[in-house]
TrEMBL record:
Signal peptide (from-to): none
Gene: lspA
TM segment ranges: 40-61, 88-111, 123-143, 163-184
Pfam families: Peptidase_A8
GO BP annotation list: proteolysis
Organism: Streptomyces shenzhenensis
GO molecular function ontology, one term from the record: aspartic-type endopeptidase activity
Annotated protein name in UniProt: Lipoprotein signal peptidase
Amino acid sequence: MTEAERIIGTPDTPDDSDERTAGADQQDIPAERPRGRRRIAVLFGVAVFAYALDLISKMIVVAKLEHHAPIEVVGDWLEFNAIRNPGAAFGVGQAFTIIFTVIAAAVIVVIIRLARKLYSLPWAVALGLLLGGALGNLTDRIFRSPGVFEGEVVDFIAPKGFAVFNLADSAIVCGGILIVLLSFRGLDPDGTVHRD
């Protein structure tokens, strides 16, 4: 009888299983934390990859393509054409370079703060793309001419009839699309799913 009570517990006596459950809960908490750390590692890994690709591509473009004729990649549908863009996409807001710099810096800060609550792998990838892209364009804003915080972004991917952009812009757009899709599916950065 005591063995059965020990296994299933009784309302009047403390149950050893509560202690075991509490112990299991305590063991589960550290198990959750490394999983969260893995998501953070994915976020920063994707960000570093996107940033490195953008930085290397811009270095090559500045060294080999700037002040040269455009290179056709797919007929006249896609070419590489180096330009300097002081504004946002489509050359919008060329007089507001400093504002775009501040916005990029703010996005980076928000993503880094959000990373502490991150338990979703798809969100880690999306935020990593945003972070890498924002860092790529912010690097141009800070270090390229005409001056600090007023630098012009190097753009070079030129589809026919569309704006010229770079790999940082591509990462930002892909990250943004993924965030919209995740939001529509009800998946939050902390890994919870909600249905509205």
